[in-house]
Amino acid sequence: MDATIAERPSGAGSPPAIKPTRRRSLRSRIASCWLHLVLIPVGLLWISPLAWIVLTSLKTKIEVFDPEAGFLPAALNFANYPATLAVAPFGTYLINSILVTGSILIGQLITITLAAYAFARMEFPFKKILFTLFLLQVMFPIYAIFLTNFVTLHEFGLINTLPAMIVPFVASGYGTFMLRQSFRQVPAELSDAARLDGCGHLEILWHVFLPLVQPTLIAFTIISVVTHWNDYMWPLLVTNSDDVRTLPIGLGLLAKSDSGADWTRLMAGTTIVVSPLLLFFVIFQRRFIDSFMHTGVK
Amino acid sequence: MATVTLRDICKSYGKSETVTNVNLTVEDREFMVLVGPSGCGKSTTLRMIAGLEEITSGQLLIDGVDVTDLPPQRRDIAMVFQSYALYPHMTAYHNMAFGLLKTSKLTKTQVDARIREAAEILNITDLLGRRPKELSGGERQRVAIGRALVRQPKVFLFDEPLSNLDAKLRNHMRGELKRLHRDLGLSIIYVTHDQIEAMTLGTRVAMMSKGRLQQVDRPMDIYLNPANTFVAGFIGSPEMALIACRSDQRGTIRHNAFRSAVELKADNLPNDVLFGVRPEEVSFSRTAGMAQGKVEQSELIGAEALVQVRLGDELMMVRCQVSDAPQPGSDVGLDFDLSRARLFHAGTGQAINLVRE
């Protein structure tokens, strides 16, 4: 009896036992494939403008408007790049862009860490009201305060200088809020331990808090750099000479040339403007993605 | 090592007072355990000694020097936290070195020597290169203790250091702490809510409730002679039975379930007293016994049995041999060990001094 019972399942069960595993592996393969089937077109869609920009920058002017011409340039024409650089002093613009974006970032990192630490870990009068004001700043669209900012800078005689593009942005309500949330997640016992280890507030901030909120700092850095690198409106408003202008304004000059937009040069210019950021991102890709996953910023 | 003296220490947040008039002296090389239920003010007291909380009023002396207003790093203390509070971005080595480099003028070689020595004592030499997240709970705890040891402070403060460990590891670390205290001759103030830790570790135990010190004594003295009903109930498991009795001036204690009056000698006994008996101070009588009770339930816990007996309106626990445990529902006679019996004032809960013969 026992033998027959034992035999039956093994004898009858073994051939179909292989089939389900085959089906399963096929199913899981399809499952992983269809994700790629969706992701690849989306990825191509995302990269297509970028590819279009780079390819156009390598075409000749005639090719751009020729309906017969293909997607790829007939011959790689790098002449657009030196020609673009000749239209406007892009070298100066690039330095200005780096100076402006860098100064804003450094200023912001200093102000937001100090403010966020105070809001997260210290008790002082009117703390709640002050914090509400910080949040209110996040809610105001930047365009709403353009005029007052302009007048203020004018009073200080800063119009058409590099500081005009830096000073209004050295504090960030958004950054303060973001960092305060991260600081609040650092266990209170860690700062107690640091106090016993002889640290004051600034040392606690430097040795304990900042190393622990690195992902948030990186996420904020990306947001800040991208925003101010690409900013067009404000620099356009407060500058009127070449030696203080930034890259996006240089691009604007190309688009407004007398004979309409000069597409090949404009695309070459765009490539020049976006490539530092792209390079920056490619190098630090993993850290960026990690930090965004960490902070939940999307 | 040093003495710590707390003089009339108070702490209040706004109008609510969390610690009231604590007077306590921790002797040199003493293991003082502050114990009490959560919210009794024991952690706040420890944090005031550490300098992490401001002292609202009173005076704190370490080795006779007033440190009431000194910042933590100038009090020459080290603290081990419940959550270990190791810096997650530093290795075990740097966790131990960080405070030492900041608070002392030692050279790097001296610091290194101290860390190696402490690591040797705590058996963590192999772990020094690891970060906290690569360590188990027990290893983190050792590193946290190591961080305190290397400082060679006058006083060690422990804030519930074992409560994040599992039961087995907790027992082990308890033994380790006792060994460290004995071998290195440390002065320790240790906060816990666990009465077993308090009983096993403390040279003396300071019992706190509602922000006030209830009793400071050696563990067995607290166990045998609790100062009031709160201490009697907190220390000991199962807790001491407190039987409401009537008494007269001469020390004759009466209860409906008592066959005859119990005679205890004391001066000025109030009319209403609580008769305190621990489970092991009662036994089942082969004869009629001193009191009559009814067994409610009986739990066999391996080596012994805990029997719940109803005595009139009250329930009490009796600890006995498994073979002696009576069946639930049966009537039993009980004998009390009167040499260890205690009386409490029914109104105030304070212990009444008995005249022992």
From TrEMBL, chain A:
Membrane-topology annotation of the record: Multi-pass membrane protein
GO cellular component: plasma membrane
Transmembrane segments: 33-55, 93-117, 129-151, 157-177, 204-226, 263-284
Pfam families listed in its UniProt record: BPD_transp_1
Gene3D superfamilies for the chain: MetI-like
Location relative to the cell: Cell membrane
UniProt-annotated stretches for the region Disordered: 1-20
Domain named ABC transmembrane type-1: residues: 94-284
Residues annotated as signal peptide: none
InterPro entries: MetI-like (IPR000515), MetI-like_sf (IPR035906)
Gene Ontology biological process: transmembrane transport
Alphabetically ordered keywords of this record: Cell membrane, Membrane, Transmembrane, Transmembrane helix, Transport
Family statement drawn from the similarity comment of this UniProt entry: Belongs to the binding-protein-dependent transport system permease family.
Descriptive protein name: sn-glycerol 3-phosphate transport system permease protein
Species this protein is from: Breoghania corrubedonensis
Automatic annotation (TrEMBL), chain B:
Any matching Pfam family: ABC_tran
Domain ABC transporter, first and last residues per copy: 4-235
Record bears the keyword Thylakoid: no
Signal peptide span: none
Gene3D superfamilies, alphabetized: 2.40.50.100, Nucleic acid-binding proteins (2.40.50.140), P-loop containing nucleotide triphosphate hydrolases (3.40.50.300)
GO annotation (BP), single: carbohydrate transport
Cellular component terms per the entry's GO annotation: ATP-binding cassette (ABC) transporter complex, substrate-binding subunit-containing
Membrane-spanning ranges: none
Keyword match Transport: yes
SMART domains: AAA
Chief location of this protein within or outside the cell: membrane
Family recorded in the similarity comment: Belongs to the ABC transporter superfamily.
Protein name per Swiss-Prot or TrEMBL: Multiple sugar transport system ATP-binding protein
Organism: Breoghania corrubedonensis
